[in-house]
Amino acid sequence: MKTITIAIYLDVENIKGLISFEDLLDDIRLKVVNEMEDVDKAVFALKKAVGDRNNLKRFRTQLSELNFTIEDAPHIANKKNRADLMISVDALEKLHVGNPEFDLFVFLTSDSDYSIVMNSLRKYNKHVWMIASERDSQKTVFKSSTDKILIIEDFTIYKDQKTPSTHYKKQTNGNKLDYIKPFTKTALDRRALAGILKVMRSYQEEKVYTTLDTNNRFRQVEQNLNLSQTKFKKFKDIYRVLFNSGLISPVNKSYHKFIINDKQQVLKFLNYVLQKK
């Protein structure tokens, strides 16, 4: 088993609306452990956000709390700023110095100029992931220069509890939320439910997962949460609620193995829990 070291770069010029960077980091960490062979831990050794002062201001509190390095890239003569150049040069410097050595480089952007540095990193056997809008994720220039593309809309913070219907293509029974509403009354209950849903957000539909492995991944997200202090008390109580809601189904009548029935419903549940106060 091994540890994957990650460098993540955010070009804040390319972020529209509000994004939960904490959810983004959790999702990347979980996807690395889930999808990369023989990996049991993922560590962000470098977190950097670059942009002009006005755009950085929207996210400064979040970025500071998550220990991002923040660099101002002012616009030159009211034209495009140099965030893309600053990030590209920094990534190539990290590759050249190799101390620490990064296994995975992640870029949040919609700028096709990044395809140059992403291709260069892949030539040196580095994994390269990208975070982009659903529309940009379909561009050939990005698909051909990355190993994986995450969709930025999955991490949007909505000011109300309604999620745009266009974000969830499948029509679902609104009553399903009734199963989890009693477990969103306190902050600890919401943390427990959100932690499991964050893990499941990194899962695929119809693939078999185990509760034991899911519990271990949950502990990576919520290292300091004691379930005995929540309404759930034990992991099995969380799964019972999710089984009853129809979000997951047992495999071969074993409640230690399950499948995700609807990935979009996982995102809907998670958004609902995160917006509760």
Architecture overview:
Helices cover 39% and strands 20% of the residues. Helix 3 packs parallel to helix 4 and helix 6 packs across helix 7. The relative contact order is 0.13. The chain is an alpha/beta fold and 277 residues long. The protein is globular, with a radius of gyration of 20 Å. Helix 1 links the parallel strand 1 and strand 2 (39-51).
What is the secondary structure topology, with strand pairs?
Elements: E1 2-11, H1 21-35, E2 39-51, H2 53-65, E3 69-72, H3 83-97, E4 104-108, H4 114-123, E5 127-132, H5 140-143, E6 148-151, H6 187-201, E7 209-210, H7 211-221, H8 235-245, E8 248-251, E9 254-260, H9 263-275
Parallel strand pairs: 1-2, 1-4, 2-3, 4-5, 5-6
Antiparallel strand pairs: 7-9, 8-9
Helix pairs in contact: 3-4, 6-7, 6-9
Question: What's the quick description here?
Answer:
With 277 residues, the protein is α/β, with parallel strands linked by helices.
